[in-house]
Each structure stands twice: as structure tokens, then as C-alpha cells.
Amino acid sequence: METRHDGIFGDAPLGTDATHREDKYRSYDELKRVLNHFDTKGRPFSMSTVGTSNQGRGIDMVSVGRGNTDVLLVGHQHGNESTGSTSLLALLYYMASGKYEAYLDEVTVHVIPRANPDGAAIGFRGNVDPDAPDPNTSNGIFTTTYRGRGWDPNRYHFPDWTESRLYRNQPEEFPENPVPAARAVTEAVERVDPEWFLDIHGQSAKTTEDGEDVTHSLMWPVLGDKPIPENGLALSKRMCVQMYDHLSRFDQVVSRYPATAGYPGVAHKAYALQDRGSVIFESVEPQSVDQYRNRTLAALPSFMSLIGTTATGDLYDRDPERVEDIPHTR
């Protein structure tokens, strides 16, 4: 029997081979129809195109709200990690319900549901760029050649491109950022000047140190060679505490996303260096429609709680040291 998506989950059949295919979430054309629907609603909704992919697809941002505090949520940087666009479309539907008008008087929410539309079209981690060079991370070349060829968008978020390893090693060949998805998000951050940034990804199955199956992971920015500014680091930890508490209420198993010293071009690290709150949010990639619904509907309240406590100011009362309560991933 064929299983079909509904509502936020798209209209195409979900087959057994859907793990690396666009048919487990809305196609690009379906996504555009949904985003255009929000745009036609008028204030407090509006839509803008913040970039264009290598294959000519628009990278769109929906903004909703009237508040002076701006926040930015981004999904689907990696084309084979679909929960970002699914959960962010659900967020937009919920915000259109009229139940959260009080929040929107204080906060303006900006959402980029699918930062990497080309990779999403084929279920490919990177963007699609046949001219991308072979990987050489020591030279600043983070590319993917498995199942296709392209750049990893989540390594190129440099507000100042001259600080990137790629530019420093090959300034004549790469005088500008070669990754449209990263350029689009970087320019969106510059445009809206968000108080905080949430980067939503999908991950493989993981367990906690106690052996529990993880549903979601969170992590604040960690860098080895550059200190994260104090205010941005504290706000990032408060965001993690808020979402951890809220997810736990829904019996979700939350862990810390494994942290390494990392690379400053990774989105949640790059924007934290600008002294913003900045968090990476990972959901274990669902393998069925029911898991999609359950993971999305669990993540939604945590996003709304983050927006709501920003609007009320309660977020700033969270104890950042409580991130130590979040268990490590095994």
C-alpha cells in the first residue's frame, strides 16, 4: 500500500528508497507554492529571495512579525538532511494560525527553509557544482564527491571572505565565496542583524552515554583558536537550555551534538563570533512518515518556546551553566 504525505510533509509518495530522494519532503516547486502562499497573506508575512543556487533555484526567506528583535532560523544546508525544511514549514504554518500574535509584536522571525535547493533536489549533501575541486581541507576546500560533486555549504560562512582559509590559500582563484547557499545566509544575517541564529540539520542515529536512542541534539559554539565573545556564548547556552527543557517535556531524548574545536566557517560558529546567540540543532533523520510527524511536532514547540521567551525576555533569565545537564552523545 502506498503511503502519502500530507500538509507540511509534501504530496509525493514515500517509497522504501526515499532516504536519498526529494520525494520524502516537498519538491522545490511545492515549496515555492507554499512560500508564495505565505507571501500573499500580507503583513506580518513577507518573502524575499536572498540568493540563487548554481542551477538557478531561488533561496527564499520568509519573514513574519512586527517586533524590533530579529531572529533567523535556517534549514536544509545539507541537501540530504531534510528535517530542517520540514520543521521550518511547520513553524510558518503555526505562526500563521494567529495564536502567537503577541510574540510577533516583539519579535520578527526570519526563516530560510531550504538553503541548498540544488542538493535537496537530488538528496546530495553538498550543493551541485561540477567545477568544484577535489577535497583538500587543509587548503580550505571542503567539497563532496560521493554521489555527485559540490561544496559543503556549512563551511563557508565568513562575513569577511578574506578571513577564510580558501581565500588565504588561493586568493586569485577564489576572490569571492564560491558557495551560493553560504553567501545567501551570510547576506541575510547582515541584512536582518538577528539577535540569535538557529541552524537546523539532520543526523544519523545516535545514543547517549546511557545508551538511550537520541531524537535531537543541540550544541553551542566551540572553537579552539578563537574565543567566542562572552555575550554571544552565554546567549547560545541559554538557547540550548531552553530547547533542552522544552524537548524533554515531550519525552524526547536530547544530547549534545559532538563538539570539536571546529572550523570558523561553520555557520553556528561564524555567527557566534559576531557576538550573537548561535546554536546548531540536529534531528535524527526520520525513516518513515510517522517519524517525520513525531520529530517535527516535537521540535516545533521548542522553536516556539525559543521565540516566545525571546519576546517576553525570559530567555535571558536561563542559567547558561545548565548546559552541563545535557548528556553527551556516545
TrEMBL record:
InterPro entries given in the database record: Peptidase_M14
UniProt-recorded Gene Ontology molecular function terms: carboxypeptidase activity; metallopeptidase activity
Origin superkingdom: Archaea
PROSITE patterns: PEPTIDASE_M14 (PS52035)
Keyword Protease appears in the UniProt entry: yes
UniProt-listed SUPFAM superfamilies: Zn-dependent exopeptidases
Cofactor(s) essential for the protein: Zn(2+)
Signal sequence extent: none
GO biological process: proteolysis
Gene3D superfamilies: Zn peptidases
Keyword Glycoprotein: no
Location of the Peptidase M14 domain: 24-330
Pfam families in the record: Peptidase_M14
Keywords, sorted A to Z: Carboxypeptidase, Hydrolase, Metalloprotease, Protease, Zinc
PANTHER family: PROTEASE FAMILY M14 CARBOXYPEPTIDASE A,B, SLL0236 PROTEIN
Family classification: Belongs to the peptidase M14 family.
Protein name: M14 family zinc carboxypeptidase
Species the sequence originates in: Natrinema soli
